Here is the input.
Amino acid sequence: MERENIRDAAIRLTMMPRDTNAHGTVFGGVILSYIDVAGGVEAVRHTKHNRFVTVAMKEVIFHEPVFIGDLVSFYAETLRVGNTSITIHVVVEAERFGTPGVIAKVTEAELTFVAVNEAREKVRIGG
Here is the structure.
């Protein structure tokens, strides 16, 4: 798929050999870790609350593999904001190494975060 417009990625990075298995594809756990970071970035951006913990990562779908050298972008969108929790959808796209401009949707997931204070106690968002 060709990129039609530039969106604001929560994070963007190039996958390196340290991120891969013996088959040259990036470990799913590496992608999950970055999905968690991207969701946290969106939670803070959307609410201005600066401390969240991840309580759920649901419906993770791996559509295509990610390879060494791919430029991977993590796009996060807020789905719901409750009193203490926020639900975020993250879409992961890879610009394939060696084929600039060709983008593949590789993974997506839905995450739920809970706002906490310095003592790690649940608090109201914005409060």
